[in-house]
Amino acid sequence: MAFKSGIPPSEITPESVYLKRRDFMKGSVLATAALAGVPLHAAAMDLKPLDYRKASTSSPAGYFTDESQTPFDDIARYNNFYEFGLDKRDPAKYADRLQTRPWTVAIEGEVDRPGTYDLDELLKGVTLEERVYRLRCVEAWSMVVPWVGFPLSALLSRFGPTSRAKYVAFETLYAPEQMPGQKSLFSTIAWPYVEGLRMDEAMHPLTILAVGLYGRVLPNQNGAPLRLVVPWKYGFKSIKSIVKIRLQETQPPTTWSQSAPEEYGFYANVNPFVDHPRWSQRYERRLPSSLLGVNRIPTQLFNGYADQVAPLYRDMDLSRFY
Ligand SMILES: Nc1nc2c(c(=O)[nH]1)N[C@H]1C(S)=C(S)[C@@H](COP(=O)(O)O)O[C@H]1N2
Ligand SMILES: [Mo]
User: Fold this and answer.
1) N or C: at which end does the chain have fewer Cβ atoms within 10 angstroms?
2) Is 86 in the pocket of ligand 1 (CB under 6 A)?
3) Considering the domain boundaries, does residue 319 fall inside one?
4) What residues contact residue 317 under an 8 Å CB cut-off, 6+ apart?
5) What is the mean pLDDT of residues 169-176?
6) DSSP state of 108
7) The domain that contains 190 carries what CATH number?
8) Whether residue 156 has pLDDT greater than 60
9) Ligand 1 binding pocket includes 230 (Cβ within 6 Å)
10) How far is Cα 215 from Cα 88, in angstroms, rounded to an integer?
């Protein structure tokens, strides 16, 4: 992502650089194709298949897009997960160090039944379903991902939110011995990575906690064992490898809005009409890039989920609450 500190943002590139990289990518795609057996398919990674309800065109509006799904290998090899490094390829290289079991999630704050719960116990109480969502990174690339998960609302309701619960704060694991990026001197992030939602956003049926993709357990680099997915917001809201969920009365701090408040806000709703201070948000690069080049497509308001979520922001100036 975008550091003010002079580390070149790897992906926010002027079109000329883009085009050069495209030539490079063509080269690497061909090189990969030449090395038979190299692609890292889900089965080859030994990811456990999950039991879940499929999504389809007859699912509720927004739960399923029939756009082409980004191939598994692209979803699992082009990642932002700064705990494992700044390069898009670092998470796939290093995330196998992450121990995803045993895993506990602390539920804290304004709930009737706070506590630290074993993830497998939590998962016994939920029904897994597929959601095929667009994921739009603030860096102007996007994917279509078939997630497997469950509504965040289903989890929160179980712990009895009190009337003072106005926001939900999330926290990623802090474990520098497993996450080399947390030790890196180049990082300007104050670990652990934290995110937050307003309560109505958290309870919205499109907001899910994902435990898998392409029908199998999440690859570590995609945020195993439990990550948030909020499809109408820029990707950085979708916090990975969650260990703490806290309900509270006040708006929680969030990693990117703390790191660069004039560039990243709390809301981070996808919006082609509100540019990032350093680049336009009108278009996005849909992955994968094909041999013929970059798939450049227009970005949609609320990432195409306006029918479902625009009412949440009815009285808000979206250029002020970015
Ligand atoms: N803990 C944590 N969560 C994170 C990030 C991160 O660096 N650390 N990156 C975010 C960003 S910028 C994006 S675009 C998405 C990328 O998710 P993906 O790798 O599954 O595509 O994860 C988000 N969640
Ligand atoms: Mo992102």
Assistant:
1) C
2) no
3) no
4) none
5) 98
6) E
7) 3.90.420.10
8) yes
9) no
10) 23
176 C-alpha to ligand 2 centroid (Å): 22
121 in a structural domain? yes
Is the C-beta atom of 137 inside 6 A of ligand 1? yes
Cβ–Cβ under 8 Å, residues 112 and 162: yes
How confident is the model over 144-156, as a mean pLDDT? Answer: 98
Alpha-carbon distances, residue 282 vs 32, 85, 87, 260, 305 (angstroms) = 31, 28, 24, 21, 16
What ligand has the least distance to the C-alpha of 213? 1
In a domain, 154, yes or no: yes
**Nearest protein CA to atom 11 of ligand 1, as residue:** 236
Report if residue 3 sits inside a domain.
Answer: no
In contact, 271 and 302? CB cutoff 8 Å: yes
Query: 111 lies in which domain range?
Result: 9-313
> In angstroms, what is the span from residue 112 Cα to ligand 1's centroid?
30
CA atoms within 13 A on the CB side of 121: 10
User: How far is it, in rounded angstroms, from Cα 103 to Cα 96?
Assistant: 15
Q: pTM of whole model > 0.85?
A: yes
What number is the average pLDDT over the span 213-232? 98
pLDDT band at 187 (very low <50, low <70, confident <90, very high): confident
